[in-house]
Inverse folding.
């Protein structure tokens, strides 16, 4: 494996506009086996659109997508809520993705640690548990590529760290590629091999530390936020500043500092 | 018991058995207003059926299905919110149905029986239609049950996992159009949605799985038909509305019972 032939999925020159607005312009992307690639960018940068194209939910206007033959995608959507009128246990929810082979189910459950929830109604689980259940459903398919859309949304900070550890473990154990979208930069960076900073086009890409020092990246997220990589633990000191702004928000904080 | 009452009961029970499982999907997918829209458009189907001299059931299905596809098309363009579009199609088609019927002045149409149902006039042929058509419709539902359930929970996830989302959705719409064409005989165009959703809503109190909910809903629907018919006979009130009122009472009782047993 290696060189240019080893990719799981490769997108080149993707262009798409929705409702007359150009969302993606000339976006290239490649994910290899055993690689964690993170797409970051501000709101409206086209992260979700890019993911939808890769998942086959949306067709690009131009550009090309090549997949490894017979590649299987495991998809973990953004936090989902199941209508309370639908009586559904966690086990049944998992079975909707395909037949449940008991031994494989047991294996996946130990992997993500949700075994005790199996017979609970799906509507009663917490945000963090839901993400693990979704992850389990994706893993039941034995995916070559795991695609996660903002997996840490609605999960508390400790839970987020655990979730990213889990994803890193899955990558090591299973050797699958991982493509994830996120805007909580500091959390993602340590568990990522390659970052793609997106804002309609690819601003910069590469190793997390290189990207966080890239002028385009700093311009996009603001100095303070870009710097949070290092000062993450001090966030709470800044909560009640003169502007009342929360600095660990990804929209950036250009007003002071 | 009189023959017409037995026919009404047999036909009504058939309608309840068919309608309630679909009612579950309408509740789960939050399509109540959509069901209403298809039901209202059925009057235009009746009118066009008379106008063109074709079978009324075929007219109803054709119009309902056209409305469903039109809605899908309009939703994709996203100029207006879904409920606005539904309102336009729903009342637009109802009004057009009334207008077309008015043009057919030499034809004596009992409008009330279409709007509120005429279950006491159910014939043996109707019963064959209800049970024959109903069996096909339920088989169709069983066929798409699993993928439909998956896309009801999360459409994009189902899509990525290989469910042919568009085809299943079209299938569901066609089946609902068929169900409405059948069920409107019992309670009429204006009340048919209630026969779909009220038993399903009541069944939610007791069901542990989606399949249980469909079966319990069918049972509650049948009880509503039986009580409604009985009440209609006893108190000399219109049958369609009596069935719906009976369903509402069962729904209320289910809620009270559930709260008691939880306390």
């Amino acid at each position: 494996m290696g060189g240019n032939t080893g990719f799981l999925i490769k997108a080149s020159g993707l262009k798409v506009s929705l409702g007359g607005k150009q969302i993606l312009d000339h976006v290239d992307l490649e994910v290899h086996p055993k690689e964690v690639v993170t797409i970051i960018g501000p709101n409206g940068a086209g992260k979700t659109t890019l993911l939808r194209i890769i998942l086959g939910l949306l067709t690009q206007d131009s550009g090309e997508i090549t997949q490894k033959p017979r590649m299987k995608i495991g998809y973990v959507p953004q936090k989902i809520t199941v209508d309370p009128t639908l009586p559904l246990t966690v086990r049944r929810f998992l079975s909707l993705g395909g037949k449940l082979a008991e031994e494989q189910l047991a294996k996946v459950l130990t992997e993500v640690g949700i075994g005790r929830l199996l017979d609970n109604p799906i509507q009663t689980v917490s945000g963090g548990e839901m993400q693990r259940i979704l992850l389990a459903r994706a893993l039941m398919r034995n995916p070559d590529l795991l695609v996660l859309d903002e997996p840490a949304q609605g999960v508390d900070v400790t839970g987020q760290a655990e979730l990213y550890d889990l994803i890193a473990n899955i990558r090591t154990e299973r050797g699958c590629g991982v493509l994830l979208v996120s805007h909580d930069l500091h959390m993602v960076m340590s568990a990522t091999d390659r970052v793609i900073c997106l804002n309609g086009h690819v601003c910069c890409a590469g190793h997390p530390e290189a990207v966080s020092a890239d002028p385009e990246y700093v311009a996009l997220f603001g100095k303070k936020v870009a710097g949070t990589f290092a000062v993450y633990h001090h966030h709470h000191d800044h909560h009640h500043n003169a502007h009342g702004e929360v600095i660990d928000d990804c929209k950036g904080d250009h007003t002071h500092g | 018991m009189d023959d017409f009452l037995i026919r009404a009961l047999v036909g009504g029970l058939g309608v309840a058995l068919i309608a309630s499982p679909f009612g579950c999907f309408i509740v789960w997918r939050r399509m109540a207003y959509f069901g209403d829209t298809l039901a209202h458009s059925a009057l235009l189907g009746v009118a066009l059926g008379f106008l063109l001299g074709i079978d009324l059931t075929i007219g109803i299905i054709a119009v309902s299905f056209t409305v469903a596809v039109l809605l899908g098309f309009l939703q994709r363009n996203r100029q207006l919110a879904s409920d606005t579009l539904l309102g336009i199609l729903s009342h637009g088609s109802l009004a057009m149905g009334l207008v077309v019927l008015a043009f057919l002045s030499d034809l004596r149409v009992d409008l009330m029986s279409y709007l509120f149902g005429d279950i006491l006039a159910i014939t043996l042929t109707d019963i064959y239609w209800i049970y024959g058509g109903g069996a096909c419709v339920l088989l169709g539902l069983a066929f798409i049950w699993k993928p439909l359930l998956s896309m009801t929970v999360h459409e994009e996830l189902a899509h990525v996992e290989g469910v042919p989302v568009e085809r299943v959705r079209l299938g569901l719409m066609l089946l609902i159009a068929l169900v409405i064409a059948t069920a409107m005989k019992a309670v009429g165009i204006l009340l048919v949605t209630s026969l779909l959703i009220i038993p399903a809503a009541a069944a939610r109190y007791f069901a542990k799985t989606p399949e249980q909910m469909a079966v319990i809903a069918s049972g509650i629907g049948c009880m509503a038909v039986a009580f409604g018919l009985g009440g209609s006979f006893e108190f000399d009130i219109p049958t369609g509305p009596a069935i719906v009122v009976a369903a509402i009472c069962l729904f209320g009782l289910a809620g009270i019972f559930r709260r008691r047993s939880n306390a």
Notes: Chain B has one domain: 3-258. DSSP finds eleven helices and no strands in chain B.
